[in-house]
Structure formats: C-alpha cells, structure tokens
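Below is our example:
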Amino acid sequence: MAEGEKLIPINIEDEMKSAYIDYSMSVIVSRALPDVRDGLKPVHRRVLYGMHELGIRANTAHKKSARIVGEVLGKYHPHGDTSVYDAMVRMAQEWSLRYMLVDGQGNFGSIDGDSPAAMRYTEARMRKIAEDMLADIDKETVDHKLNFDDTLQEPTVLPTRIPGLLVNGASGIAVGMATNMPPHNLTEVVNGTIAYIENNDIEIDELIQHIKAPDFPTGGTIYGYDGVKEAFHTGRGRIVMRAKTNIEEVNGRECIIVDEIPYQVNKADMIKKTADLVNDKKLEGISLIRDESDRNGMRIVYVLKRDAIPNIVLNKLFKYTALQSSFSVNNIALVNGRPQLLNLKELIHYFVEHRHEVVVRRTTYELRKAEERAHILEGLIIASDNIDEVIKIIRASNNADEARNNLIERFKLSEIQAKAIVEMRLRQLTGLEQDKLRAEYDDIMKTIIDLKDILDRKERRMDIIKEELVVVRDKYGDERRSVIEYAGGDLSIEDMIPNESVVITISHAGYIKRTSLTEYKTQHRGGVGQKASTTRNEDFLEHLFVGTNHQYMLFFTQKGKCFWMRVYEIPEGSKTSKGRAIQNLVNIEQDDKVMAFICTQDLKDEEYINSHYVIMATKKGQVKKTSLEQYSRPRTNGINAITIKDDDVLLEAKLTTGESQVMLALKSGKAIRFEEAKTRPMGRGASGVRGIRLQDEETDEVIGMIAVDDMESNVLVVSENGYGKRSSLEDYRITNRGGKGVKTISITEKTGNLVSIKNVTDDDDLMIINKSGVAIRLAVADLRVMGRATQGVKLINLKGKDSIAAVAKVMHEDEEIVLEGEEGETSVEGVEGVENTDVSEDGTTLDNNLEDNNTEI
C-alpha cells in the first residue's frame, strides 16, 4: 500500500447492491426510457440539440453525419458513436418513425433490414417538425444542466410543441423494466389534446373518439379493438396488426397482393420465412412469391396454385407468417425522473402540463425582456427630450464613465439607461428617430400589458396552447395510415370468409364455381338474360344452387356416393368464368359425376342431424329416406348414400325434417304428391322404394323432386323450350307413393318435355339457365297462378336449337334486389308489352310480340 493511502473494508454484497442500483437508475433515467414531456430519450434529444447548436436547420444544406455524430459525442453523449448514429438514422427512416425528425441524404437503410451507409458517406439535417420541438429553447423555457465534463449546458427536456411521445411512440429496454409505445396520428392526437384542454374531466372513452387507435408508419390494418381500448385505459395491451392485402388475377392466376406490412416487420425476412414454410410443405397453396416493391411503393405477390382457395391461403399466411403480428403496448415513461405506467389521459395531461410550463416561462422571459427594453426606451426618450443638455454633459466629460455618472446624477437615470444614451448614435438624434422611439415605447408597453395578462389568467395560457397545437396540426397533420378493423380474437377459417350469399353452378362436364349473388340482377320474364358462365362448346350448365359461404355441402353423384365440403372451399369465379373440375376438389371416379347437392348448417350438431333427413330420387322413380346423421362423418373417398341399379342413376337429394310432402315429376308431364312420413328411414346401403310409376319405361324418366313444407307455396314447372307456369299445390291431390301421378303441364311440340319442378312463393326469384350458358333472373311474383293442366307462358327466349339446362330459385327477401325495367323502372309495368301477356284456357300465349320486347345483356 502506497504512503497516504487508506483501505476501507466494505461488505461486497452491500457494495454490489448499491452499485447495481446506481447503474440501474442511470440506465433507466439517462438512457433507455423517454421523458413523458417531449417523448425523447437522452440520445435523441442530444442529437437534435447538437444539430440545433450547429445551425443545421431544415432550410440549410445537409451536413455530413460524421460531423453531427462527432459534435454530439464530444459535447453531450459520452458513449459509443454507433449509438448516436443509429439513433439519428432511425429518426430519418420513414418506416420507423410516423413523423420523421431528421432529413437524411444517402443510404439510411431499408425496410428489408439493409444497414445504412457509414456515417462518413451520409448527410443529414433537421426537418421542420424537429424545429418545432426546439422552438423557444433560447427563451429559458426549459432547465439546462451541465454536460458530462461540466463545460457546457444541455437541456434536460425540449420545449416541444409536438406531443412527441404519442405521435412517434418509443421503445427501450432498461433494467427491470421496458417501454414499448406505439405511434399515433398527429391530427387525432392534437384533436384529443384540445378536447382535454377544454375539459380536464374528460373520460378516456371520450378521448378515444378523437384518438381512435395507434397509427403505424407502415400502415397496415389494426385487427380488433379490445387491445387498443385496454392500452388506452391501462397503459398495457396487445394490438394485432395485419398486412393490407387484396386478391387479384394476374396473367390468369389468382394472386394475393400485399401493399403494406405490419410495423417493425422485416420484409425480406418475412418473405424468406414464408418461402421456407412453402418449401417444407407447412404452407400449401402458394406456387411463387415475388417482391415487386420499388420506389413507388411496396408490392409483394403471392402467386397461388390453380386449386388453391385464396381466402384460406391468406388466413394461413396470417396465422403462420409475420403478415399478422402483434404490438405489445407498455406505456412506461419518466415522470419527474421516475418511471411510471401511463394511460392515454395521463400521457396527454403531462404533455399539456409541460406546454403550460413552457408558455409561462416563455412569457416570463418575454416580459422581462420587454420591461428591460421599455426601461432603456424611457431613458432614450428623456435624452431626446433634453438633447442639447445631454450633448453638453457628454462633451464636458473626460471619459465615458464620467459621462454616465453625470447623466445619472442629472436625470436620475439607471446605469443601463445612461449606458444606452452614451452609446446612442448621432442619427438617433433626428426627429424621425425620436418619433420611432416613442412609437416603439407605446407598442412595447401594450406588449407588457398583454404578457402580464397571460401570466395572470390561466385560460389565456390554455388558449395559446390550443392555438399553437392547431398550427402544428395544420402544418404536419395528415390522413391516418393504419386502417382499423373492428374484429378480433383467435380466428378460424370461417372468421376469414364473409358469410355472404353465393350462386354455386355445376356444368354438365363437371366444372364447379361459386359466384357472389350480387353479380346477378333481377329481370322480367321474356328477357334474354345475362351471360352466367363461359363453358366449352360441348359443355353447358346443368346445376345451380344458392347458399352461403359457411354452409356445409353434401355432393351426391349419379352412382349414389356422397362427398362432404364447405361452400367456401368451392373455388370462386366470376359469373363468366368456367369454374374448376369437381374431380380436382373431391375424389370422384372418372365415370361418375355430381347430380345433386344440398346445404346444411352444422353437421356437428347432434340435435340437428338427428332431426333432419335426406330424401333421394332416381331417374327410374325410386325414392329413399336416410337420417342426416349418417352423412356427418365424411371420408376422403366419399360414402355410399344409396345403392343404384345398373340402368338407373341418382337424380335428386333434398334435406327435410321428416314431415314434408314430396312431389316427383316426370319428363312426360306427370307428377305425384305423397307424404314423406309414409316413407320409412333406411340405411345408406338400401336402394329405396318406388316413388312414381313411369309412363314408359324406355323413354320416360323422373326430371325432378321437391320437398314441400309450406302448404301455401306453389308448384312451378318449366319445359325445355322455355315455357313455364306456377299452380296451386292443392291442385295436386295427395296419393300413396308408387302411383302414376297427375298431369302437371300440357306437353306439346311447342313446349317440349318437362325439365324442372320447383316449389315457390311470391318472395322467390328464379334463375333460369339455358344450355348455351345464358341466364335470366325473374321474380316469381310476376307469374300469375294458373291451372295444373295448362301450358304456361314463355319465360325465356331461346335461340336456334337451344334449350333449358337448369332452373333454381333465389330468395328475394335475402338479397336487396332492384327490379329493372327498360328505363330503370321498379315495376313489371316498366317493360312494354308484359302487362298485355295473357294465356288462353288451353294455355297458349296470346301476346305474340313478347319476343320483340326482350333486351339482350
């Protein structure tokens, strides 16, 4: 031990505790956490103050980043140069800060995670919004402290006019705590702050009306609002962010396009990880990923496989990739030097409190300066009023000090006034300058009165704060970037798919698609119709069904097999698209095809499936009833629904409650009506019982079956040449199954054979499609009820040898359908000639000119 040194024994445990606490507080207060007043951590504050001291403003030239970093390091921030440069770079990145504070020139990195160029290459300057954070700093508005070597002063906080903590957020990891605060929209924050100033007792729910949610610099979608509300109320919460996506068709392929990604997501890493998932078969349905981003904006393209369902792939992208991310809010900031968890109202309160102190200190400073100037002006005015005597005193004095003392003694002036008189220039002795002195004095006295009034009245100070906030909002405010989607929670695939009504069509060659029902418009009978599908020359639409996306589909094939699918799993296409082969969706044999399909609400609800039945009919007149429960356990290869004989095929399948009335119609124009209850339930392997006797075993066949629950409904039949009618259900007497039936339409060469039978009400619309793929939609209410044995009226004009392929009913009340006449009228009378159409007793059409009134779409 050297001479003069002294050893002090200490407890190592106590020393470690004390030292670590000191270190922790230094990290918390001086490095990692932002100040609630200006929203800045010390390094960011020092960078901006250093640029301010260097005179690097928004209207000056860019200066080398190394020069700025050196200034900050040498004067204020005794840490590594990397920490200073990284902090400055982040303030210049548009994907990091909602409102950038630094205007960078050169390579400042990218959203792909590319590193910025070295500080010797890049240049920077302050942005105008940063100047507003430093406004009035030279007016003693904030406290200053000595820098690390006690040679300079630096501000402890900036006198910001910008609510920086809310606007740009903050993140930092301290010791034992961390902060993670999201950015918000400046316009919304200013509006919320003004609302708080006007009513300090405002509730957080009322503030939320102004500040709706965080607003991230990368845009995207905020999915769900519970986390937002929790963060606003408590200071902690979890906000779910999603990329902004849309589905487009590019070069004949469906693609998912991503225009905006969640905040703090590395685009390149996200794409790479997605590609890895695709290659590992963990994410299916994507064939190619392209990054087409350029200087005009972001564009990531996920090219889908031909059999992929876009919404399901998108849901999996949200689930397994960073296209959906979360932001864990933890609003911890320094309040009076101590870390504190803050809710939305408290964040606004402390900012307003800070602005109030800045306004008071600025006003006090300006008042002092004004009073000092007024004091000098009073002395100058005294001198100008006694200019000859003043000149005489000055000339008689040996030096300036003697002149000052003589003036003080003669005119009772202060030292400051006397000094100003002595230093006064000769030009100020002119009459014009003397008038200016008096005008300046009058103005400054008014200013003093006004400044004193501001200090005396808090409402004046609050008005000033509001006015300055409005100026900030008008200068820097912009539109919200992040869209708020008010939904949330853990999502199933169904949550991703809108439960909208759709039209499902199946062509004769087995192509299926679903199309939004809104693509079809209601027309009137006699119209030529709209093109409903583009099919191959040898193909035509054979089945059409209306359901909703969330329903379950049971497909029944002509060989009697049943397959199970959700409606949203059916590929979506426009009404003019061809669709996709069913064989690519379900495992159907090559020589089999779908003949019927039904929708059910829930195949997992035991009460539902045990109280419903499937009744089937074959072309040879067989019927069979089976409990729906037997179809609730699907298999990849399908299940047997009915045993079909070699010369027969399955034609129809209907969902019933077991209490319906069943009608079967024949190609020859006969129909039978019987009680479903008279048909006992059978197992899936049974072949059924006879439902109707064919008129001719060789040429006749069943063309349709209906299951009637509403006894007030009507029976509608359509022939292959476009004739149709509706008749009362009571016109068909109830008989035992297995009979020959009664006449349901008068079959002639003009009408052609019967092709469809439906039960309808006035609330229904009809969709009629011919074999060339042209469709017409009309309201059942436009068809008057006729006798059972009549021929009917013409429903659709057919060209050449065209004929009807399919007829389906659409619920009019479920879709807000507007009936369109020739000039947009909303009634059937809007179509010329329709009101004159009539039918004679034998069912022939009286209006021979109806075909001329059709409009081709």
Summary: Residues 344-385 form the longest helix (42 residues). Residues 244-322 form a domain with the Gyrase A; domain 2 fold (CATH 3.30.1360.40). DSSP finds 19 helices and 41 strands in the chain. The CA atoms of residues 37 and 154 lie 16 Å apart.
